[in-house]
Write the structure tokens for this entry.
Amino acid sequence: MTSEKLGRRDFLVGAAGGLGLLLGTSSSKVLADGHESTVAAKAGTDSILRRGYTDCRYGQLHYIHGTPVSGAVKAPPLVMLHQNPSSSVEYEPLIEAMSTDREVIAFDTPGNGMSDWPPEPLDMAGYAAAFVDGMDNLSLGKDGPVDVFGYHTGTLLASELAIAEPERVGRVVLSGIPYRTRGERQERLDQIAAGPKLTEDGEQILTMQRNLWNFVVTSRDQRVPLERAAQIYMEKAKPMHRYWWPYTSVWQYDFVTRYPLIKQPVLILQPHEALLDSTMRAAALLEDVRIVEVPELDRDIFDVGSDLIAGHLRKFLV
């Protein structure tokens, strides 16, 4: 799988028409909650990616749904929860790699991507409740447990989902846990309370967006195509002045009391990136944990290392 392939749109929304023929094959399928989505299969691949919406207590919840082209499902469904700010789009290469033998559902966190905003900032349990609603509506976990993968902020979302649904979540994979002491968390809460503010001149927002562009696009791993980096930037830029809403739940999260409540087997799949040390501190609080470091990866891991990550996931998610 080449970087060029990872940077392309591998699914369609609405009528597929002739473009569907160029990509491979196209058809329509009714999802478990009754929503219809047009399917596009890219020629030469073993998975199909499609978009969908389901309902949650805060409005509509958007997701990307990956399934095997063959229809042969050999493993439990895998739910993916992304970092903040971002969306399920970030996971596209990994969804493609993992959905060759199982269903993969990557939700957009409420207020990110194409999911509706909640009425106010939530705690982690509040965000997890939205995913429980989505799982209910899509009948995920009805016929057996699902596995869950979370990255950065998504590690806490996945953790709370595992705590909330101990019978429906079988195995948990976490990558990049933002563990902080109580004092460090308070410092970050004070920082996000200071801005940026939405104003008529947009000065603070535009400054934030320039910094975001520099981080996501200018400083990217050069194996990531510019078009793909710009796509990721757009997803991260969408929340604008509300980007900090999920961070209130991150920096209020009490690892010491919450992590011992996770009873499922946990894999820490950890690139050598900024959260390496904090992840190891959090791992010490888990009851049933296995740690695999991935020194080959540091940033843009789903675009440059999806096959490597998928290999580690398959060894654990048996």
Remarks:
- Residues 47-316 form a domain with the Rossmann fold fold (CATH 3.40.50.1820).
